[in-house]
Amino acid sequence: MANIVSRLWKRLHKGEDSSPENPEEKEHWSDRMDGFSQTVDDVLQSDPATLGDPVHVISLTAFKEVVGDAWDHLAPKVQLMSENTLLSYLDPSDIYRQPAEDLFLLAFPTKKPDMARMRAREITIDLGNRLMGSHFSLGGEEEGGALVHAAEVPTEEAFGADGEVNLEVIQASVAATRAAEKTPPPVPAAAAALMAEMGVFNEGSNVVHARYRPIWDSPSERIVGYRCVPFREVEGRKVSDGAFYPANAGVDFLVSLDRDLLGMVAETYAQAVAQGADVVVPIHAMTVLTAGREVIGESLRAIPAHCSRQHLIFEAIGARDETLARDVIAALKLEGGGVAIRLSLESPDPLVLLRAGADRVGAMWTEGVVRRKLHQVAQGSPALHAYLWNMPDRKAVAASLKFGIQQVEGPGVAPVVLKAPGRTGPMSRSKIILS
Fold first, then answer.
1. CB 241 within 8 Å of CB 199
2. What was the pLDDT predicted at 233?
3. What are the Cα distances from residue 160, in Å, to 37, 165, 330, 337?
4. With contact defined as beta carbons under 8 Å apart, do 370 and 342 qualify?
5. Euclidean distance between CA atoms 40 and 94, whole angstroms
6. Is 104 helix (H, G, I), strand (E, B) or coil?
């Protein structure tokens, strides 16, 4: 605990955060937060239902407990840093209130539930990084990582009939979230470490949906690739978990899945190259490090000898730190193709990955923290080949191009370049559906 307090004290008193330093600017930011608080009070007095459901909670309770007696000294700086972070994410339609010094309530009445949840998660991670720096992680509190939490409370439970905050209900929700995060994942430790950022997958489902679609389309290149997205049942509907591999998958499953995807790519590689496209295939870091060249070489054997592999790009998934990324990149380079690395929320700086040998560095559009990393680096590094996944519309595409993200993909950019072959891979532990 003493080490954590010491690190926090240094960070908060050496100006390592981006909080305003000018007294007038501080007052301006504080006034803006007061405006958000007044807004939520007005809404509660009129119609609480317009807040949307659920209400999102950003909790510094664990952080406060860890710093102990130092909290009284750190609180003003932490408060300013928290306000700074919140305001950088809140839109005019979003609603904010602070019912306690270590709790923030957020409502996103105009956003869909999944986007509201993603925004709350981004705020949590960004605030954690600002408070803890490189010592923050999404791991459990026993690792000294997750000291900032995001919880959800049904709107009707979060507020009483008089519009007052039900603080006990909110604190109970935060406590439940913290307890759940301490539960060990139901996967081997090595796999869990690589896949923690990929979400929870329903163990009862074994359907993996593989889509053959363009990754990006720019004036100089057309690129296609296989995607692999788990689906689960929610109220009778199949919905995507937003991950590319089941979070409970073991190494055998990953190797088997990647072997089949590589095989499918090999079968259509010549056709893709003939149409002027590069071909991208995702491959998990665990597959590369445990099975390596044996699986990759065997699976790509169907590529005709006359076809150069210069159009083949391996997209490494799950390479979460610099050391792991270097090992994975080195192994994949031996196969003669290019290497793309997808950044996660805990990935190192994009330039580090480029220096490690990656040809391209990319991120999910919805991961705002990572997206800003790419924007910042791309503006100062013409050598960075950056790309974004799941671009929502043409406006988002235009904004990314403006910020130096030259290769993008989305419904407003590229049509389907190739159709997937009409076959099902011989998966022993999962079923692949192609479309």
1. yes
2. 43
3. 17, 6, 58, 60
4. no
5. 9
6. strand
Report the distance separating Cα 25 and Cα 408, nearest Å: 37
How confident is the model over 290-309, as pLDDT tens digits?
Answer: 876 778 888 888 788 888 88
Instruction: Clarify whether residues 225 and 147 are in a common domain.
Output: no
In angstroms, the CA 361 to CA 355 distance is 11
**150 in a structural domain:** yes
Whether 75 and 207 map to the same domain: the answer is no
Task: For residue 184, say if its preceding peptide bond is cis, omega within 30 degrees of 0.
Answer: no
Q: What is the pLDDT of residue 184?
A: 38
12 vs 275, higher pLDDT: 275
The H or E element containing residue 226 is strand 221-234
Nearest to residue 216, comparing CAs of 278, 281, 307, 262?
278
- Asked if residue 88 lies in contact with residue 24, where contact means CB atoms within 8 angstroms, the answer is no
Distance spanning both ends of the chain, measured CA to CA:
52
**Average confidence (pLDDT) over 421-433:** 30
In angstroms, rounded to a whole number, what is the distance separating the alpha carbons of residues 407 and 374? 12
Q: pLDDT per residue over 88-145, tens digit each?
A: 788 877 888 888 888 888 888 888 777 788 788 778 877 877 776 545 554 444 444 4
Q: What is the mean pLDDT of the segment spanning 391-414?
A: 59
Question: Which one, of 240, 220, 224, lies nearest residue 232 by Cα?
Answer: 240
Question: Residue 53's closest CA among 132, 109, 136?
Answer: 109
CATH number at residue 135: 3.30.70
Lookup: tokens for 175: 């406590």
Are both 214 and 176 inside the same structural domain?
no
Q: How far apart are CA 140 and CA 345, in angstroms?
A: 16
Please state, as a whole number, how many other Cβ atoms lie within 10 Å of the Cβ of residue 210: 22
CA 228 to chain centre: 16
What pLDDT score was predicted for residue 424?
Answer: 30
Structure tokens at 368: 């705002």
Closest CA to 74 of 130, 115, 28, 158: 130
Angle of the 71-89 helix axis to the 113-132 helix axis, nearest 10: 140
Q: Are 338 and 329 in contact (CB under 8 A)?
A: no
- Collapsed DSSP state (helix, strand, coil) of residue 158: helix
Q: At what angle do helices 113-132 and 368-380 cross, to 10 degrees?
A: 60
Phi/psi at 232 (5° precision): -140, 165
Bridge partners for 209 per DSSP? 229, 433
One domain, residues 124 and 220: no
